[in-house]
Specification:
alpha/beta, about 15% strand, 8-stranded parallel β-sheet, binds pyridoxal-5'-phosphate, TIM Barrel
């Protein structure tokens, strides 16, 4: 389909990717990091499978989704593309086994109750699922808070580490929502870096850090993010909730 100015959806997405890769490269240069150490995960929630297909054609390897039903359908429709699927949304324990059946990475593990069903789903599918523990950067008691309290990470990590079909890879976090009374992304991510340093003492092999979205990827790269989750800066404003 062509836009009013004659550009195709493919052109739009290619331009978005170029912009984001440029931002990652600049942020890495500023931080003295190698851009090859920062994996772009394109967040495709609300966008159609046809966009996922274009992303794959344009060289994207990793995509992220945050709602189980939508993710399951899209992953099935795009199964031929060889993409790595990241589940980045709030997880219900009764959906966790189903998520582990198609997700290659589950980034939003924030309570021990999720571990057994994730293990079951991964085992049934006969694959190993990479797991990130989502840590909350919101003030305690904040509305809509998601993610584990930093104090709960050791217990959660131990539960994942014991599971034969789950591989503990690291941590994930989302900066507090603007206007929520939480910190600005730069300050919140500085806290995250401190939490990660402590976490790595006990789990030196779990060095992934998924942080940074369209608005704050530079702040995340500065503190050592290995994965950035970018939606709108690549794909444009999200279509309305269906
Ligand atoms: C939607 C979403 C993103 C991407 O957000 P953008 O601002 O569009 O880049 C990243 N992480 C999570 C957890 C999300 O739900």
């Amino acid at each position: 389909m062509n836009g009013a100015d004659g550009t195709t959806r493919r052109d739009q997405i290619a331009a978005g990717l170029e912009t984001v890769h440029g931002r990652i490269a600049t942020a890495c240069a500023d931080a003295g990091r190698d851009p090859a150490d920062v994996q772009l995960v394109v967040v495709t929630k609300f966008f159609p499978a046809s966009d996922v297909r274009l992303l794959a054609e344009l060289g994207v390897s990793d995509v992220g989704e945050n709602r189980h039903q939508e993710a399951e359908a899209k992953a099935a429709e795009c199964a031929d593309l060889g993409l790595r699927w990241h589940f980045i949304g709030g997880l219900q324990s009764n959906k966790a086994a189903a998520v582990a059946a198609y997700a290659d990475v589950v980034e939003s593990v924030d309570r021990a109750k999720l571990v057994a069903p994730l293990e079951r789903g991964a085992e049934r599918r006969g694959h190993v699922v990479d797991v990130l523990l989502q840590v909350s950067l919101d003030p305690p008691g904040a509305e809509g808070r998601s993610g584990a309290d930093p104090d709960d990470l050791p217990t959660l990590a131990a539960a994942v580490a014991q599971s034969s079909h789950l591989r503990l890879r690291g941590l994930m976090a989302v900066a507090p929502l603007p206007g929520s009374g939480g910190e600005e992304p730069a300050a919140a991510f500085a806290h995250l870096a401190a939490i990660r340093r402590e976490f790595l003492v006990d789990h030196p092999d779990a060095g992934w850090l998924s942080a940074g979205m369209s608005g704050d990827l530079e702040d995340a790269v500065r503190v050592g993010a290995t994965h950035v989750r970018i939606g709108s800066a690549v794909l444009g404003p999200r279509p309305k909730f269906k």
